[in-house]
Each structure stands twice: as C-alpha cells, then as structure tokens.
Specification:
By secondary structure, the chain is an alpha/beta fold. It has seven helices and seven strands. Helix content is 36%, strand content 14%. α2 packs across α3. It holds the Pfam family Thioesterase.
C-alpha cells in the first residue's frame, strides 16, 4: 500500500509536491493546503509510520531511520515530472535531510521548503516539549503550541495513541545532530515561519541560508507555530505556490511550452 494520500491523481502533472507533516500529525492535516494548489499539480501527502495509511506500522523514533524510509518512499516518484518537497516542524527536518539523501542518489528535488523549524545549529529558540513529560504536562505544552483538537480529552484511547506518537517524534527531533561540516544542498530553499512562533522565531530562519548553495528565501506570516493550518492558511498556500513557481520557473515554463506547442 502506498504511504501517500493523494487527493488528486494526475498522471502527468506539471509538478509533484511531497508534503511532510508535523510531530504527532498525519498527511490528512494538509488537505486544506492541497485545495489551493494549481489544478495541474499533484500532491503527495506522506504518512510517517504509525499513523494514517501506516497506522499498523510501528512508529520510528530515530531521524536516520525516518529519512531512510522517506527517501525510499519518494524515489519511485523522482523519475518524472519535477518534484518539490515541503515539510513543517518535524517534517521540515525530514524534508531537508531527505532532499540531501535524494541528491546523493542523483534524484534531487527542484525545491525544498522548510516551515516552523529553526535552522540547524540555532540555539536561541524555545525548547520543544520534552518527550519524558507526564501526559498532563505534555498535553499542556502541545496546547500552548496550538493545532490541537479541542475535544481530544473526550477520546482517551485516541489521546493515548496520539501522545505515544508525539513522544516518539520528539525523541527523533531531540536526538537529531546534523554534521556541521557537510556540504550545502544544491537546491533552492525557502524557510517559512510565523512572528509568534517561539519554537522557530523569524530570526532563527535566516540561518537556513547556510544549508543551500542555491537561492535562499525567507517568508514570515502572522500567527504561531501552526500558522499554516489556521485561518491564515490560504495566504500561506498562495505564498507557497509563488515560492515554488519562482524556484522552478524555467523548468515549468519549458514543460508548459512543450505541452502547448503541437508537434
């Protein structure tokens, strides 16, 4: 079974966008984003193990294992239309590292977007919740971050499973230690964030520029950590589309011209 949720199934899209979700989340959370994408873009919403289409698989709590799994998931889609990768929070780390792994295997994406995540090596952001907090403390911290279902406490079985997933995801992020001496990506990269996100403040995003030798851009929105899933999500999606089009304009323009020009 495919690990991707595909809200629209296009055989020959102008672009394929892989979306990697946040800690404790699943691909389904990003359905609203897909509704605002261009009609000729295919969206691949990935479920990490332990949730969504992969609910029967054991969750992974090691970043290297997560990246290896996601790299294998994406590789079959890399030989075809241009491929872009976007990730939020935990997904930003996975997107960035997966892009590196794909590049090393000759299957580089055309653009990478990271959101809600301080750049590697940045020390000034507020600490993410610890995975060893009590259930009550962890729920309190997650509620502060936003993006929580208001009635989750009414579903104890779901709440227990959700907290287990979050703890495993947080372990993966906490143990993540990139090599500071590695070469930057050869892919355009855009860092997205929000003015009130204490876990990825705007000043922490600028250092993402060190992670690419191609064009770097930064975009900041109003809101908190889950700005893109709230009322301002439509504005974010519009900017996301503009960013991808800017990064891949030559390739998409050539492709469009070939489609429109009769042979």
């Amino acid at each position: 079974m495919s690990p991707f949720v595909r809200p629209r199934r296009l055989d020959d899209p102008a672009l394929r966008l892989v979306v990697l979700h946040h800690a404790g989340g699943s691909g389904a959370a990003y359905f609203p984003l897909v509704r605002s994408l261009p009609a000729d873009w295919d969206a691949l919403l990935l479920d990490l193990p332990g949730r969504g289409k992969r609910h029967a698989q054991p969750p992974l709590e090691d970043m290297a294992e997560l990246v290896a799994r996601v790299t294998e998931d994406i590789l079959p889609w890399a030989d075809g239309p241009p491929l872009a990768i976007f990730g939020h929070s935990l997904g930003a780390v996975v997107a960035h590292e997966t892009a590196r792994a794909l590049e090393a295997r000759g299957a580089s994406p055309v653009w990478v977007g990271v959101s809600g995540r301080a750049a590697p090596g940045w020390q000034g952001a507020a600490a993410l919740p610890r995975h060893d907090l009590s259930d009550t403390e962890l729920m309190s911290r997650l509620t502060e971050m936003g993006g929580m279902h208001p009635r989750i406490d009414e579903l104890p079985d779901f709440r227990e499973r959700f907290l287990d997933l979050v703890r495993r995801d947080l372990r993966a992020v906490a143990a993540y230690r990139p090599d500071p001496a590695r070469e930057p990506l050869g892919v355009p990269l855009t860092a997205f964030g929000a003015v009130d996100d204490a876990w990825a403040p705007p000043r922490s995003l600028a250092r993402w520029e060190q992670e690419t030798c191609e064009e770097f851009r930064q975009r900041t929105f109003t809101g908190g950590h889950f700005y893109l899933l709230g009322p301002g999500g439509a504005a974010f999606t519009a900017e996301l589309v503009r960013e991808i089009r800017h990064a891949v304009r030559p390739g998409l323009a050539d492709r469009t011209a070939r489609v429109r020009t009769p042979v």
